[in-house]
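hey can u check if this looks right to u? its 83 residues, i copy pasted from the old doc so theres a chance i mangled smth
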Amino acid sequence: MNKFKTPNEIWDNKNIKPEAKEIYSYLYCKGFDRTVFHFNIGDIQNLIPITNVGFRNNLKILEKLKLLIYKEYKRGMYEIHIC
């Protein structure tokens, strides 16, 4: 059985903005127990006031830290793989 818990390394890392931490935890919960899932930016805009560019920049940070892999296949639509 998988644990439903985000990795502690993301919370301890002071180089990651709090907004990126929130986004990662939301995506982790959304994609829990799946390898790949599709995500619409509008789903998170209800919780965090963020633009598509800001969201993409946060995803780039998370991808650089090897926490996820993403691909934007249409404006505002993402395919995300949580590592």
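The domain at 15-82 is CATH 1.10.10.10 (Arc Repressor Mutant, subunit A).
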